[in-house]
Amino acid sequence: MSGKRFASSRFVLRSYPAREEVQYFAESLGWVVASTEKKAPPFSGTEIIWSSSGGEALRYMEDEMTGNCYVTVEASTGEEVQRLGEAVVDELLPWEREELVFAVDTASDEMEFGLAVIRLSIAAPRRTDETILQRVRSALTHDDARVRDMGIVATTYSPWPEYVPLLRDIAQGDSEHKLRERSRSVLESYAAAGVGEDE
Q1: Helix (H) or strand (E) holding 177
Q2: Separation CA 110–CA 116 (nearest Å)
Q3: pTM for this structure?
Q4: Which end of the chain is more exposed for a tag (fewer CB within 10 A), N or C?
């Protein structure tokens, strides 16, 4: 099917894995599996795509690196994406944005905080969201190197230009060699995608 394609933001599911419930949802729509792919590191996981006869698609990802599952929907019109997204919310009950923000703000320790930031960032929209940006910034500038590391992971899901100076600070001055290297790698991927501070 040719022409412009529209896609939703990621809907983060409450369970991991969530393959059976997503499969049931897709089959209830009469959709069939179009492809199954095992992703290579650093984005290890399994991606399954179901498609309809009309060209709509449901893309499911088991993200082994972070222990999260999420789906997106794709269609030829924004209105159809909206309709399918509402069906995902009604049937698969993904985490709501407010719940994801609350999980970050009420985390009981550093690891819980970092993992919650990653989960929130997976659900981030394509355009910068100040609420999410503030929390990812808190992770990237955290005293605990483990949290900074998870903050770096969080920036890989939605490459916002506001992340560039934060990643550059880590790449140039973090006390942990591993984090400096990882930030440089993310910055290189941003540059390849044409993402910069002046976007």
Answers
A1: helix 177-192
A2: 10
A3: 0.94
A4: N
